[in-house]
Amino acid sequence: MFKLMELPFKEDALEPYISAETISYHYGKHHKGYVDKANELIAGTEFQDLTLEEVIEETYNHPDQQTLYNNAGQVYNHNIYWESIGVGGRLNDDVKKKIESDLGGMEALKKELIDKAATFFGSGWVWLAENKDGKLEVLTTKNGDTPLVLGFTPIFNMDVWEHAYYLDYQNRKKDYAEVFVSQLLKL
Ligand code: MN
């Protein structure tokens, strides 16, 4: 069984950038909903004793397990999202060096994150992740997809589903992305 992770901050801690109302729905309804649905789907199946990551790997590219794959992926992605807020201080020296060498530095990284979020079509995620060769990349995934199944190790992400920002920013996705990168990631 999967557990809804504890939110690492109070629901109103991100105001005025993200409202308590958004967090209340995003964490308490959307994230919790993915956990509940994934648990319902694994109960009594061969998946029930696997880790979240194992369930994602095992259901990837299995059309008959698409609903479980999507919900497990969304649990995993949201776990990383809440931990991503304030991540700057937790980036280790190796990652900081690679941001310089692989991505052209912190300002270039921020710009790429904002550009990729602002132009992303549909529901999905923007990630900083390390590829199979140990290089950092900014990439996007759609819906509940995660870089895990593509051989990446995620470092942090930004949720660009409308439910992440619509109550506060409506159609201004770029404004949300700018605030997320400049105020919440604290890179
Ligand atoms: Mn979300």
Strand content: 5-15%
Give a short account of the largest sheet. 3 strands, antiparallel
Query: What is the β-strand count?
Result: 3
Helix amount: 40-55%
Strand order of the largest sheet: 2-1-3
Mean pLDDT score, rounded? 97
Radius of gyration: 16 Å
State the separation between the terminal residues, measured CA to CA: 34 Å
The chain-level structural class is mainly alpha
Small molecules bound in the structure, each named once: manganese (II) ion
Unreliable residue stretches: none
Number of alpha- plus pi-helical segments: 7
Give the helices and strands as they follow along the chain: HHHHHEEEHH
Shape: globular
In words, what does this structure look like?
The chain is 49% helix and 11% strand. The protein is built from 7 helices and 3 strands. Strands 2-1-3 form a 3-stranded antiparallel sheet. The longest helix has 23 residues, at 20-42. The N and C termini lie far apart (34 Å). The protein binds manganese (II) ion. Residues 26, 30, 78, 159, 161, 163-164 line the site of manganese (II) ion.
